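Quick check before the chapter quiz. The format below is the same one you will see on the exam, so make sure you can read both the input and the output lines.
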Amino acid sequence: MSAPNDLVFDAQGGFWFTDFGRASGRERHLSGIYYAKPDGSSVEEISFGGTGYNGIGLSPDETTVYAAETFTGRLIAFDLAGPGQVVKGGRGGRLVGAAPGRAFFDSLAVQANGDVCVASIADGITTLSPEGACRQTPLPDRMVTNICFGGPDLRDAYITMSGTGQLIRMRWPETGLKLNFSA
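Here is the expected output.
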């Protein structure tokens, strides 16, 4: 691993995380998705060879793990057979959807209804349904890098706007997914 990035815990306490990879001169270390057991006894490589896996999240029923690829602006899904187990033949994942235009994907958050909200550098927040339907939420900063949900009803979206160095809170039209092991 060269640049571990985002993570999400499952109900069993294990966690999924991305390794963004890195570039140095003419050399590029590719990106991967990993699963670690809560007791630290193992870390398993689930997928390797991506182009900048960044944000990661689980579907509400934890049967799918999603990863946002930064450089391609694509959301990739991996179907799961159980905690840390990708369905046989699924190590390459499947395309859920892509950012319209030429946006880059960063961090992501999953809504309670299963839709995935991805911070999109150049396009605000891109929300993709598991079937690939796409909706844009434009924001006044072209460097949107993170989104998470909070507040008593999980309808407050906390969004980092890195171009202006701001953290904003806005009411979101859908409820965010309550994370495992969150306060």
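If your answer matched, good. The chain is about 0% helix and 55% strand.
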